[in-house]
Design a protein that fits this description.
By secondary structure, the chain is mostly helical. The protein has one domain. 68% of the residues lie in helices and 0% in strands. It contains 4 helices and no strands. The longest helix has 15 residues. It is elongated. 0% of the residues are buried.
Length: 68
């Protein structure tokens, strides 16, 4: 603690505070029933191998955007 109290750089101290405060944030969000259901479906699809790579997804999104 003594090392921290001797730091005079305000920006550095603020960065340390941000890191320490990060652990205080609640690690969950409250989901609606609809969102919880969608997550369950997505989880099942993943377990069934119904997934694509990030690269494939990027290509699909790029194609979709060109159509607009």
């Amino acid at each position: 603690m003594q090392r921290i109290s001797s730091i005079e750089d305000i920006k550095f101290l603020e960065a340390i505070k941000t890191i320490l405060d990060y652990n205080k944030i609640e690690p969950f969000i409250e989901l609606t029933d609809k969102l919880a259901n969608e997550l369950q479906i997505a989880s099942l699809e993943g377990k069934e191998g119904k997934v694509i790579s990030q690269a494939e997804l990027d290509i699909k999104v790029e194609q979709w955007l060109k159509e607009k």
